[in-house]
Structures
1.
Amino acid sequence: MNLQFVVDGLLAGSMIGLGAIGVTLTYSILRFSNFAHGDFMAWGAYATLAAVGAIGAMFGKIAPIAPLSFGWPLIAAVVIGMAITGLLALLLDLMLFARLRAKGQAIIVVMASFGASMALRSLLEFIFTSRPTYFSRAIQIAMPVGFGIRITPDQIALLLLTAVLVLGVHLLMTRTQTGHSMQALSQNVALARIVGIDVAKVVRVTWIVGGALACVAGVMIGILIQIRPFMGFDMLLPMFAAAILGGIGSVPGAVLGGLIIGLAEAGAVQLIGAEWRAAVSFIILMTVLFVRPIGLFGVRER
């Protein structure tokens, strides 16, 4: 049996999982579903692309790092893109979501996120047009690793990057005072205020971390597939399915949920056809809601 779908599923799951971390943190701490989160992916990818162009204009053409298809300009541009996307998420909260949250009606914030999503997507399309673009058009030769599996150096590098980022977020959540504050706020906002937790700071960190990870997920899509304004919107359902499957508020759960969704989608493409790929996320989402609404690592609220 050809197991190539395993690599494809792990790569897709990595992108979904990185995006789902932001979704699960936003919901558990701020108590609303942010449907604009997928567009942070697209903005991050385009911000990184613009940064690569600016670096290229300053330093000229720079050879890629063998055997990868990209060099240090893209690595530096990703850091810039993460900062820009984190600040974009923070700015959107300050200008829109924070004011609506103060009114105390979650449904209004959710509907506002729909509107923000369409506005962000339309603005990207206006600035960059709807034509797909790429970080690099270089063609890599996939290396056979056995069992019918082939993988490129770019894919290996991105899987390793995902592992490093997930470990970093896990350490942030479990080994730092900020992470403990985020967990406390997700469990009980009122009690967190009473014990002196700086709620505003936790909210800022939540948006910055979520936006930065969304940027990396968008860059991964841009490196492996292509960059276009609707790239984040297409990932929205898989991200929410992964966050719910893993359990709202659980970072490891979001990543594991993303890997499960990615592998399921890739398996569906191989077994029953690509036209069923989008349906897989929906089916898994509905199954989880019926069987175990709190997800794999979720905790029932008291």
2.
Amino acid sequence: MRLLRLFSLVLLLGFAAPPALRAQSASPYSVTVPVPDTSDTQRSDAFATALSQVLARAAGGQDLRGKPGYDDALKNAASLVRHFQYARAAPGMSLAVDFEPGAVRHLVSSLGVAGSVGAKPPVLLMVRGSDGQLLDKAALASLAAAATARGYGVAYVDPANAPDPAKVDAADPATLAAINQQYHTGLVLLGSLHDGDADWTLVSGGKAQHWNDKAATEDALLAGAGNGMAARIGRQLNVIGAAVSDGKLWVSGLKSAMDYAGLLNVLRADPSVRGVVTLGAENDGMLFAVKSAMPADALAANLAASGRLISGPAHAGTDASLRWLH
């Protein structure tokens, strides 16, 4: 009976469900960077810095710095600016820069990269110093700067309500659901600093990647973690194919029409998804045919990074399986 009820809801909503409202978020083409003053030289440098961040976003986090024409593009960043505005921001000034979306997409294409513009969720930072205490925003500045330069935003854990790191590392569904509710992400970086080295764990969509770094200073350790984190996320999430792929995606944990609508919203919000068709339902799961600019396993990893889904057990006859988090 549950299968019939759920599938009836799908029929009422329609196999091609009405366009879902996308979550309101900052434009991926807009960046705010610090500036020491309002001189032409500093403004040009700020435009170049801002464009490097926007290009990283537009390329889905792929590293464009070695591409022919990249340096020239940064020198001419002003030609792509649609609007800019100065603002006072402690301890100095900032410049908000808004780039022309079409021009950015054209530039990414001219650099020989398949674009995948979309605001990726932030990475929640849970880093403890050598004293075992969680580091705050100021202490993590070098890590955040390295991540931002690669096109990734960060969020800072509330020390008074920090998740259990062991449960995060184990991808406990209830813990990940709570993180999504508070921080709107499925990406978490756990860190533990020691004397001259650090242990790191990146949790993305219920999968953990571990590594260790050594450096002469704490700032160097943190900056290295930001670059290492961005590289690992890129390898997992930014797998853009040369052509549209057809795959079958199974999603369990759907208990209501609201869950179904929420899932469709997440699917349509992913910039790589070209089309979604509901094929069937069984118990609390549903089967979808998805056209995407990336293989099904890479798409599943991207969807799990949103924080609303987690990797699920394999399901017969499908290319990837996920579980909806409540």
3.
Amino acid sequence: MASPTLKYAYFPGCVAQGACRELYQSTAALTQALGIELIELKKAACCGSGTYKEDSQLLEDTVNARNIALAEELNLPLLTHCSTCQGVIGHVDERLKDSQQSNPAYIEQVNGLLKKEGCSPYQGNTEVKHLLWALVADYGLEELQNRVSRKLAGLKCAAFYGCYLLRAQTHIPYDDPLQPESMENVFRAVGATPVYYRGRTQCCGWPLSSYATTQSFKMAGLHIQEALDAGADCMVTPCPLCHLNLDSRQPEVEKTIGHKLGLPVLHLPQLISLALGISPKQLGLDRHIVSTHPVLEKLGF
């Protein structure tokens, strides 16, 4: 049974407030419909998406210790809807919690830098949690199913987990990092049919896109084609960076691989919100590069 007082310190990340604004919209629509309260961390900084540590591990740890400390000030878990943010911030949190026992001098160094900038210290007393985990573990699939007003019957959905959500942290208590089922279980809860294919837990290619564009697009094209071959009507991802490579760049991917794909790619909260009866316009489904009209037509919108 879901708690009517689920509350989180909300870390929306950069991409959802820019290139994937529809993710920001649909997360707000979904959580409001489910009665989940989000307190947005307006002072939070970009997690770095794994790039800070290329210059300095201390930089990545300090920036994200501050992000976590903002949630700790509210005595709330930090919630993100971005797999990359989950992977980076969650891994920092894991490393710093371990350092509290194994290397307390390092924690003192991090907190010393935070104090110098007038920031609250990292305490290690909260959790970093992706929206998917919050829905599965906190809200509950049974309760989610009870809230469905428009079953997504007949819609075949291919999950694209990507890599950060499943394997950036040492311990993920909510799913199997190699054979996950949480997204497929969400699909079933809202009446959709899960489609399985080989690439659903692999990298989308985004991290390569700035220096190995052809290889990046070939990776994305392979995953999309495998999902199509498995009969998918759409792909669903919990990561806006994956969405950029799979949806926004799909026309470029098609040119690279030499044939048409045309597979709609939805953000996870968009899919769930459709099952709650929220309008496609409110969810920003008109903002996608690959048209979502085939999905909406199949659902009778």
4.
Amino acid sequence: MIRITLAGCTGWVGKALVAAIMAAPDLALVAGVSRQAAGRDLGEAAELPANGLPVFATVAEALGVPSDVLIDYTKPDSVKGNVLAAIAAGRHVVVGASGMSGEDYAEIAEAAENAGVGVLAAGNFSITATLLRRFAREAVKYVPDVEIIDYASPGKPDTPSGTGFELAETLAAERMAETSLPVSELGGVRETRGGAIGAPHPVQVHSLRMPGFVLSCEAVFGLADERLVIRHDAGTSAAPYVGGTLLAARRVGEQAGLRRGLDSLMA
């Protein structure tokens, strides 16, 4: 039985995870974290029948309840501190929240290695988003020119999304140098070329935030006289993220250190 603490238990994905964990025969939900629902019953806070489990205001408090894995679906301003606190407490961590930088992940990777615990972070735990990443990594071996377009609702607090950021970092590390002119050599309004993410060959990422989108991400590849677009579109349900998150919770303890992307668990 894997004991789970869930941070962000009253969020969009969090509520769906509460129900799924409670229904899984090999998982046990032991505590939740939500500032707005602190002190309440976890089941009721997730709009489910009462289950007698506590909801804490902070991850630090929740770690006082014995557990094996922290699942974090909180916000960009709190996720790094939550992850480091869990590592220091000897817990494995599944990170579903976005907003951390490459430097943040490097710090987490070192901390996890030193503590001998596993951390699995993904910008998106859905199967089709994971396949977008996997197919894009294959394409970039042959097509070096790639840019990413990231779409989300107007209320999304971070830009780009975790999906777009993680994909850009991955492709920047694996692609050859692009053939397009460097942004530094362009005239006009350079900001229209998007933001450069990753190294050694940064990928330009363009973020749209407007009504009508939940989350979409596309990788656009170009060669002379041909083009390839690989795109993921999310619907309005949190269901696509649940299965991948629980898979990560079941397997995060297999390896110490940091792993990025759900595809790190795929054969």
